[in-house]
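Forum > Structural Biology > Help requests

Title: Can anyone predict the 3D structure of Chitooligosaccharide deacetylase?

Hi all, first post here. I have the sequence for Chitooligosaccharide deacetylase but no way to get a structure on my laptop. I'd be grateful if someone could post the structure tokens.
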Amino acid sequence: MIGSSVVFRARSWTVLLLGLLTTASPAALAAECSGHPDALGTSRTLVVDPREHPRIGTMQYRETLPLKDHEVVLTFDDGPLPKYSNQVLQILANECIKATFFIIGEQAKANPEGVRKLVAAGHTVGTHSMTHPLTMNRMPIEKAEAEINGGIEWTSAAMTDPSKLAPFFRIPGLMRADGVENYLISRGIQVWSADFPADDWRHVSPDRVYQLAIQRLEAKGKGILLLHDIQARTVAALPKIIRDLKARGYRIVHVVPATADQPATPTTAVEWLLHPPTETTPIARWPQVPNFVFAQTATLPAPGLADLGAETARQPQVLPRKTMAQADIASTLPAPGRDLFAIPEGSIEVLLSTTLSRRAATRLAMAAEAPRAGKDKAGKIRGQRTARGAHPAARHATAPRPTRVATSVKKRA
Ligand SMILES: [Zn+2]
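Reply #1:
Sure, ran it for you. Structure tokens for Chitooligosaccharide deacetylase below:
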């Protein structure tokens, strides 16, 4: 048991004062960043109480950080790895940006100085397990607890002042499970998912990482960006991401845990929802959890195919199984014009089409107008079944028949 060895003590008053001071204008922020007048800066410090909001990040959970429009929280996982982590630190320092780092215990063990550098630079440091297993959703809970505790032990051991360790945890590969979350929550540790990744662990170009970061942020308007400080492509993409954030009017928010001396920033419950629900917007649009694959990381095992997504079907949080892009596109589709559903007066066919498919309505109209000898009782029943069985959205649509799609696919194959 290591619970008693981890104490999250009060943070210094300097952090609080810095947070109060940094609610200044962008111009003032830039002036505060010594030697870098064009820096993006950190606009404010958000103090959160893990016990009040134990799970955050709309990639998987209902709640996320209570950010205002155009506010961004940067997070970096899997370090510290000196070769890349030091470059990320320098880029953030040049912009006077404070971020949150999720440390792997093995990395802290191998490079404790890297952890101390993060703390010295004023960043928030949470943990990310001991060995980064991508199986925390199906391993015995005792093993999961050992992973969590090992990461906390080695990360806090690397710190000069262990109280600097934030009670924030990100599950490796976001492979969540109720038991894992319940254990973390029972210890007062906040489970951090994210609002969008930039796929910087995949074999993509730095420019692609930049594009995905900005596109996904623009789609949501604010949120927690998931990056990794152990990838060359992230180091290459980060300056461009930051420059673009500034050009687009985004502001960086630094997140720290509440303590006895530093109470949580006052918020309302609805602020912890990315987009507060209204009568006309559905709220259940969580995308599928991505399958994380780690590249160029000698110290971390790549997952086997069997490790990836095997349990996702049992996770109600990730339903429906949509990609993020689809969800985002769906939320921005324009409403169809009224004339699409216009009903010319006096037409039995079109009157029926308000409740039946156009094809079924046509059949009914023809049956009604045909000689009674042609009776089409069976056809009428078939038409109704077709209409009722169809997806509501398909009733007015003119989508191609499934057989046609299959044929065209076969031709291309
Ligand atoms: Zn990770």
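The radius of gyration is 26 Å. The chain has 14 helices and ten strands.
Shout if anything looks off.
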